Amino acid sequence: MRSHIIGVAGPSSSLKSELAKQLVQRLPGTSIVSLDSYYRGMEEIPLQERKKVNFDHPDSLDWELLHEHLLAIAAGRAFDEPVYSFADYARTAETRRIEPTGFLIVEGLFVLYWPELRAMLDTKVYVQTRPETCYHRRLTRDVAERGRTPQSVR
Fold this sequence. Notes:
Blueprint: E1 4-9, H1 16-26, E2 30-34, H2 47-50, H3 63-74, E3 79-85, E4 90-98, E5 103-107, H4 115-120, E6 123-126, H5 131-145, H6 150-153
Parallel strand pairs: 1-5, 1-6, 2-5
Antiparallel strand pairs: 3-4
């Protein structure tokens, strides 16, 4: 089965994940792959150093693994998506199995950044949200859900 791949991009906290969840409810047989799962693990780096990494840069993502996984799904093969811990700034030992489905949503900040990924997308969506709205949502989310301090978010 060849999945119809939908890319959802936009600023941090612009509600990309929420749009993807809404699409899953409306499109039967849909899976979501989040770019957040592909942050580089960096377990070999001390935690205090990991906290200094700029996660709002494409280099913070393991593009090569994501590309390999999307090539697999495009060929009708399942893959194991990594699970990332924002509290530990590291990948966990867990994975989430992604099976070929009618629709696959790839959502994240840099979904439209890599030309190879853009070429794989059947549908491209950019979520535009006012920067001040994104900032306040991110501040609230990162403190409540990701164990960050308001100072570290700012």
